[in-house]
Amino acid sequence: MRKTLAAVGLCLALFGAAGHATGQNAAGPGMDRPEPGHLLADQIRIVLRARGYSDLGQMEREGNTVLVADAKRYGEATGPLRLDAKTGQVRDERPLTGAQAQTLLRDRGFSEVQEAGREGDAILVTAQRGSSKVDVRVDTRSGAVSQR
């Protein structure tokens, strides 16, 4: 009996406290009981932050969709987001703007970032990386950065 109570106490200490420390209080209706295969609120935050989103508002689940009240992407307000509940992929995501691409590059260690033009879905940029001048392209759909 003591071992069982100790195990329950340990689980509450680890998982109960972790939920409050990671900001799950910003999770709205349906986020605490996802369907099998759906991402948890913390997992969605990780996916969105990896794609440049910050200042995430309250999340609410509606079937296979997660609604995020408001957010910023590379410093610019995006308004409400609709995400796939299984992948965290933003539905109808807008392409990156020039300012967002510049912020993305600065976040990745580039300096003296200047837009040099556009080519299809790519923004062409000249920047400084360390002591070297580099020409890069930023895919406005994925945020992928490559040398040109």
C-alpha geometry? elongated
Structure annotation, total helices: 3
Give the strand content: 25-35%
> Ends: how far apart?
65 Å
Radius of gyration: 20 Å
Helix content: 25-40%
Instruction: Please write the string of helix (H) and strand (E) elements.
Output: HHEEEEEEHEEEE
Give me the side-by-side strand order of the main sheet. 7-8-9-10
**What number of structural domains do the residues give?**
2
Number of strands: 10
**Helix/strand class:** alpha+beta
Low-pLDDT segments, ≥5 res: 4-25
Largest sheet: 4 strands, antiparallel
What is the residue-mean pLDDT, rounded to a whole number? 85
In a nutshell, what does this entry contain?
By secondary structure, the protein is α+β, with helices and mostly antiparallel strands. Helix content is 27%, strand content 31%.
